[in-house]
Amino acid sequence: MYEKYLELLEEKNCRNIDVSKATGIPPSTFSDWKKGKSSPKLDKLKKIADYFNVQVEYLTGESEYKTKEEWFSSLDTDENLNRLKSELMYERYGLQPIDIHKIPLLGSVACGEPIFASEDRELYVEVGTDIKADYCLTAKGDSMINARINDGDIVFIQRTDSINNGEIGVVLIDNDVTLKRIYYYPNDNKLILQAENSKYEPMVYLNNELDKIRIIGKAIAFQSDIM
């Protein structure tokens, strides 16, 4: 560290006493570092780095670049650029980068009348690893707006054939698929698919009508555009 410090002193044409006055670090401390009697702690390294307008990592020898800007100009890959952006966001705003993974977007699901089901994979959606979904669908229509799921939102789905009453599920009706709150009453052999919009009547299925219906997933999260 002290060698880097001497280089910066020479480059800036200043003396130990100048740095001492600006940082509040006693001259004797610099002398101890030079003789190897002690090593600088992080708080003092930060003061010196700020004085010379360099990274702490440059002083400690962990980086060959004096500033983030120098490092930025040396980058030539998306991976390194993304890492730099994450570090800058954390330093500037305290935003911690999150781990992400890709979830297949299989198509769309009706938030209104059922639409034809398709599992042709169109693309992938990147989300935080805290969302444990098997796939996602684009919501179509306005029947789930009171659950804050609007037309065009991405709905994340876990594969399951059984969910609790009142949960939002993806239901296959013949070859059509829809997204609704599900209520099943086994004693009455009745299934109700309830919209979250008062302009839509509940979809009620009884007895043999249930043979054409299959629950294929549970909605666990959704993603909306910020307007």
Automatic annotation (TrEMBL):
Output one GO MF annotation: DNA binding
Q: What family is it from? A: Belongs to the peptidase S24 family.
Superkingdom is Bacteria
Kindly give the InterPro entries that the UniProt entry links to this protein.
Answer: Cro/C1-type_HTH, Lambda_DNA-bd_dom_sf, LexA-like, LexA/Signal_pep-like_sf, LexA_repressor, Peptidase_S24_LexA, Peptidase_S24_S26A/B/C
What processes does the entry annotate via GO biological process terms? DNA repair; regulation of DNA-templated transcription; SOS response
Give the classification, highest ranks. Answer: Bacteria, Bacillati, Bacillota, Clostridia, Peptostreptococcales
Q: Which key words tag this protein in UniProt? A: Autocatalytic cleavage, DNA damage, DNA repair, Hydrolase, SOS response
* Name the record gives this protein: HTH cro/C1-type domain-containing protein
> Which residue range or ranges hold the HTH cro/C1-type domain?
18-59
